């Protein structure tokens, strides 16, 4: 007995012999026409439609071929569900979400499931994150910090050289940006370990993106009419390409000391023609904005709160106005918890020109000071060596040489006294700065206590 496929094949061969025009012409008779009709009727009944019959008749009019079946979209391999290859003896730098778990990439999840060990700087936070996405982590987490980096580094190198695969993660965002992961990566690369990246979310790049301060030089010259108008007006004699080239500065976290913060704002942020990005904690936000307002009163500051979370917000204005905003009652919740990123805009043409003029004035004053010192300096010994006829010239030269040596000795003693006095002033200034830092540290501690519990803080004070 023939199965279904065998029955279809036999019916097709029978139809070919019956319906072929060549066989009908050879017989010269229409006696087989009713038989062909009955055969076609049976074939239609067998295959289900007359349209299928006509197509099949045309297909089988020549030599029989097996039909090639195409893959349906359901049968095709989906690249998003294709398993990720985990490189052995390699370190995978894996980015994790900064707030929204849906920002986890499929590749990051595959890598975290497939590696042998996961290196983290905060084991409890990483364990909680992996539990939320159902990734087993029992016995796979390795703690790495500044305290144990010297002992852990050698063990990690041995495990990787032994064929183990590892992933480096941080509490949120991309590792090696403002944490100890960069030092580990450098040491592993020196040991010949391959390091690969699994990119993803980053608070730094997200804050830059929503602030809009990443215009490149080409886009600025072609699309920004304001920059062209400023260049045509001759503001500071600078083109718009100078200020919008896509560069930025990342300073991690500003120092706790008030004096150190002011020093960074004056020396790095003030002359910068590109945006400067800093991570910040909520309880210090008002103090930092006050420092920025004192140094950069006209500079725009972008403050991003809780990126990718439910309470995400962006506030942009001058630092002085932002201080007034955050001191309001309705904004108190924003300075109590969460993660903040500060983006300080770069200096514009007018501000840059003013800063350059200020630096030029400093250089002019320095040159005048050097010129005055050169005028007060003793004349060279060669100017006193005047030749005279006979032995008088030799005697005059000798006396001039003695006077020059005496003057040089006096000048050296004066310089030594001046250096000792300068050294004493320097020591006093350092001592005063240490005292100021201690006072500011104590004030910072009291501010933290005030923000935590006002009742306990009142008892301490």
Automatic annotation (TrEMBL):
UniProt-listed InterPro entries: 4pyrrol_Mease (IPR000878), 4pyrrol_Methylase_sf (IPR035996), 4pyrrole_Mease_sub1 (IPR014777), 4pyrrole_Mease_sub2 (IPR014776), rRNA_ssu_MeTfrase_I (IPR008189)
Residue spans of biased composition, Low complexity class: 394-408
Regions of compositional bias (Basic and acidic residues) in chain numbering: 409-425
Taxonomy, superkingdom: Eukaryota
Region of interest: Disordered: 371-425
Annotated GO CC locations: cytoplasm
Molecular-function annotations in GO: methyltransferase activity
Key words, A-Z: Cytoplasm, Methyltransferase, rRNA processing, S-adenosyl-L-methionine, Transferase
Residue ranges annotated for the Tetrapyrrole methylase domain, each copy included: 91-214
Keyword Transferase: yes
Record GO biological process: methylation; rRNA processing
Protein name: Tetrapyrrole methylase domain-containing protein
Taxonomic lineage from the root: Eukaryota, Discoba, Euglenozoa, Kinetoplastea, Metakinetoplastina
